Amino acid sequence: MVAQYTIFGRQVGSHVLAMLTLGTVAAATTFAMAGKEKVKERGPPINASSKDEEEFIQFVISDFEMIGGMGGY
């Protein structure tokens, strides 16, 4: 036998309440996690003394990321 609760004038079983609770929690967590985008982390600012030096550092960083970091060496 199942425990019955009266909700809004109707008899509802405890197993139904448990399923509704689990479904609501699952839907709420899915909804909360679905909308977030990951923000690409940026490193510290480049303190170059000239524009050429900054372009060279950007080139080296992009080349390093393109080959897969330290795994390519």
Question: Explain this structure to me?
Answer:
The protein is mostly helical. It has 2 helices and 2 strands, in the order ββαα. It has a two-stranded antiparallel ribbon with strand order 1-2. A hairpin with a 2-residue loop joins strand 1 (4-7) and strand 2. The longest helix has 21 residues, at 14-34. The radius of gyration is 28 Å and the shape is rod-shaped. The chain starts with a strand and ends in a 7-residue tail after the last helix.
* N→C terminal distance: 67 Å
Backbone shape: rod-shaped
Q: What is the spatial order of strands in the main beta sheet?
A: 1-2
Could you describe the largest sheet, including whether it forms a barrel? 2 strands, antiparallel
Radius of gyration: 28 Å
- Count of discrete alpha- or pi-helical segments spanning 4 or more residues: 2
**Helix-strand string:** EEHH
How much beta, percentage-wise? 5-15%
What would you call the structural class?
A: mainly alpha
Q: What would the average pLDDT be, to the nearest integer?
A: 86
Helix content: 40-55%
Q: Quick one: how many beta strands? A: 2
Pick out the low-confidence regions.
none
Short description:
It is built from 2 helices and 2 strands, in the order E-E-H-H.
Break the fold down into its secondary structure elements and pairings.
Blueprint: E1 4-7, E2 10-13, H1 14-34, H2 51-66
